[in-house]
Amino acid sequence: MKVLLYSGSQQLIERSGVGRAIYHQKEALAQNQVEYTTDVKDDWDIAHINTIFPGSFLLSRRARRQGKKIVYHGHSTEEDFRNSFIGSNLVAPLFKKWLTLCYRQGDIIVAPTPYAKKLIDNYHTGRPVVSISNGIDLSFYQRDEAAGRAFREKYGFTEQDKVVLSVGLPIDRKGILDFIELARRLPRYQFVWFGDLDVPMIPLHIKEALKTKLPNLHFPGYIRKEELRDAYSGSDVFLFLTKEETEGIVLLEALAMRCPVLVRDIPIYEDWLTDGQQVYKASDVEGFAGRLISMLEGPLKETLPGVLEAGYQVARERSIDSVGWQLAREYRHLMEPMPVPVALGRQKRLSGFGRREVALLQKAVASFLNE
User: Fold this and answer.
1) What is the pTM of this model?
2) SS3 label, residue 131
3) CA–CA separation, 219 vs 311, rounded Å?
4) Helix, strand, coil percentages, rounded to 5, for the chain
């Protein structure tokens, strides 16, 4: 059994969460002795497709004609596509239709969380959906106090400064406007947001907000994962303000690093993260401000040791070796004799997608996946 790990247009997703997920898959399969390739021209039995570019769709159709098995990874949903970039809400219904066409190509669909599985189940693809985390490399994300001090020194923070960290593309869905408002309300804390700022399709009102000048608000841009690891070690709180997510790899990274985490109280985190047990939660700017003060200077500071250890266990349950074992299990099941999924006719599959629509989706998907 040999698996093709396929992304297509890899350069477009290198800095994204999907790019990280593909790296994790490689490590996960290697640790579980599952043979894989990234070369379409190799001989392989299963295509594990991670992106929803037109090229990925065409590969899945070709693989099906050749009798290959297909795993389609459900990294994306219509829900987390919205509020991402200019025109995303207008394109969202078309995006959902395209997602459904892509996911129907799979013999199975892998969703990163039970919440994402529930969303994709509602797309009525007619394909089984299983929940397997994107995973976290625990051997890489280990807290290093010396590296944390180096991070503070690099960005001019003292040992006494309270540093609040966030990571992601600075867009409305990720909570960038609330982040800026919190920096305004809490001038005694340092707020640092790492993420690519040079994205053409970020809405104008977000670009204007990013020009906000506050002495405690910092937008250094995109950094390598090694530098980000140092930032987790040197920060007092990881603040994850996302309003919609399919999992959140940066959240797993922060938990693995034993960095105190404050998240927005949204449905995806209801079943596996409990307020005051593995993380802290709030729902609006007032709530976030109160929680930050309590975590950094108030009563919640006393509860941090137990919460950090419980948070680490959440990351540990999603370690790369565990993810690899789960993927290998699904691959083996696919290779067993089973009924072939009913094929959908070409006209039904491609209805509504001419060259113009496909070109629009290519551009939209590239912007979305680079979050």
Assistant:
1) 0.89
2) strand
3) 27
4) 50, 15, 35
